[in-house]
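Q: Give me a backbone?
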Amino acid sequence: MSNKAQLLEAIAGKNRGLLATDLDKVRVLTLFEQLEDENPTPNPLTAPELLDGDWRLLYTTSRGILGLNRIPLLELGQIYQCIRLREAKLYNIAEIIGLPWLEGIVAVAATFEAVSDRRVNVKFERSVTGLQSLLNYRSPSQFIQQVESGHRFPPLDFGLESREQQGWLEITYLDGDLRLGRGNAGNIFILSKEKGRD
């Protein structure tokens, strides 16, 4: 079995990391590092045909992301990171599921600047939180189109100015459907590319 297949098997059933035990985390990190060593795209920022698009989070060690699952009566749905390389923008979108009509999203928009062929400095600039029904949310791509057209989503749509709203992201493995990355807080991310979702 390939390292990629072993890694995907190791994270299966772990609910993005929410259900991972300490032993699971060690195994996943070992397989993650082995796959990084096989990276077929050493300069991912020069491969827009692979990097651009909407990526669904399969696994992370980020407490900030996994902490969204602690909202009473609600649970974490799909989480996306959408990269628009030409515009140097990325969007993190977390879908929150719950009682009917209470499904929500928590989204942040950021700009990024390449500092190497695989690392970008990220500056978060805007946060949008609300009910999917009130935001007319249907998919990450449709939501991003609304944001890019200048649409505002009151009341929980605001700019982020603080120095704490910055970080970096390094892409350590990239192929046609899988991306591995590391963040400035020491977290790892495993994402799968969405195919043709509007």
